[in-house]
């Protein structure tokens, strides 16, 4: 077992654990960089011990930096927002629409369906049903077939027709612009409400939490919850309100293009240095 000498003076002389000191303690170089006590033969691999001590110090510094920049610490959140601005300065809703009502219908259709497929379906759907009244009093069987490619078409038909009727009967044919009112529409929960209020009306009522936001915010350690309602509450506590709308679009874009579910493209991610997710591929 290698034993350490105690200390070294300005002349390179060590005092040994054996008690020897002075001229007898001038280190005798041994092969492979070892140095030893001339009195008792105790030796020390100087290079190895120096590297070991340096490694410990570096590891400690890295750990300190890592702990200081984890989770929802304000400085880290600001860094995340800055990186999202760099990557997606003009992020917006991918659902094609020309008014709040069309956005509402598209968002209902987007449940368990890609925005790309929804846009294909609505390309012919909106000309066929141009107003809330056309949807409200449509033939259910026919509407089901029109939206069948989006999946869950029977439930979606009920939601679309129910929401359209309520908009006509209770809100004068206009999609309501408050969270309280819009949540009274059939088929509308907070995700859909936040999409419509934020994108169509520019009202920051909350953060949209879809499958991409749920996954990416978890990987970035902005939330530890799995329930969308709890995730939204976690996010609105750390994201400034004037960023809620843009942040939602940016995270959704990032989830689709880079931070994908099965194989995140971490090499291309500008958030990689401040992300410590266990799902990282680099």
Notable traits:
282 residues; mainly alpha; Endonuclease III, domain 1; 2 domains; three-stranded antiparallel sheet; two-stranded antiparallel sheet; 12 helices; 51% helix
Task: Provide an overview of this structure.
By secondary structure, the protein is mainly α. It has two domains: 7-64, no CATH class; 100-257, Hypothetical protein, domain 2 (Endonuclease III, domain 1), CATH 1.10.340.30. 51% of the residues lie in helices and 5% in strands. The protein has twelve helices and five strands. It has helices spanning 46-68, 74-87, 100-109, 115-128, 132-136, 140-147, 153-171, 179-182, 190-201, 211-219, 228-238, 244-257, and strands at residues 7-8, 14-15, 28-30, 34-36, 43-45. The strands form two sheets. It has a three-stranded antiparallel β-sheet with strand order 3-4-5. Strands 1-2 form a two-stranded antiparallel sheet. Helix 2 crosses helix 12, helix 3 packs antiparallel against helix 9 and helix 6 (140-147) packs across helix 7 (153-171). The radius of gyration is 31 Å and the shape is elongated. The two termini are 38 Å apart. The model is unreliable at 1-14, 22-34, 43-48 and 63-68 (pLDDT under 50).
């Amino acid at each position: 077992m290698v034993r350490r000498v105690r200390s070294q003076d300005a002349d390179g002389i060590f005092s040994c654990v054996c008690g020897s000191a002075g001229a007898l303690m001038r280190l005798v170089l041994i092969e492979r960089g070892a140095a030893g006590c001339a009195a008792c033969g105790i030796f020390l691999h100087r290079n190895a011990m120096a590297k070991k001590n340096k490694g410990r110090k570096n590891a400690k510094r890295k750990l300190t930096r890592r702990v200081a920049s984890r989770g929802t610490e304000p400085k880290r959140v600001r860094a995340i927002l800055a990186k999202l601005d760099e990557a997606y300065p003009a992020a917006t809703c991918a659902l094609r629409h020309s008014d709040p009502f069309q956005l509402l219908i598209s968002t209902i259709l987007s449940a368990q369906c890609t925005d790309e497929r929804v846009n294909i379906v609505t390309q012919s759907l909106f000309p066929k049903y141009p107003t809330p009244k056309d949807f409200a009093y449509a033939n259910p069987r026919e509407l089901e077939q029109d939206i069948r490619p989006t999946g869950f078409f029977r439930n979606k038909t009920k939601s679309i027709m129910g929401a359209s009727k309520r908009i006509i009967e209770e809100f004068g044919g206009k999609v309501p612009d408050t969270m309280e009112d819009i949540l009274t529409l059939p088929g509308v929960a907070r995700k859909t409400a936040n999409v419509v209020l934020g994108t169509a009306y520019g009202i920051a009522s909350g953060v949209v939490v879809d499958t991409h936001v749920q996954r990416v915010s978890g990987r970035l350690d902005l939330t530890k919850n799995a329930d969308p309602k709890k995730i939204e509450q976690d996010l609105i506590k750390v994201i400034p309100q004037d960023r809620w709308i843009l942040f939602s679009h940016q995270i959704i874009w990032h989830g689709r293009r880079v931070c994908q579910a099965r194989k995140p493209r971490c090499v291309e991610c500008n958030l990689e240095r401040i992300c410590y997710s266990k799902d990282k591929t680099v």
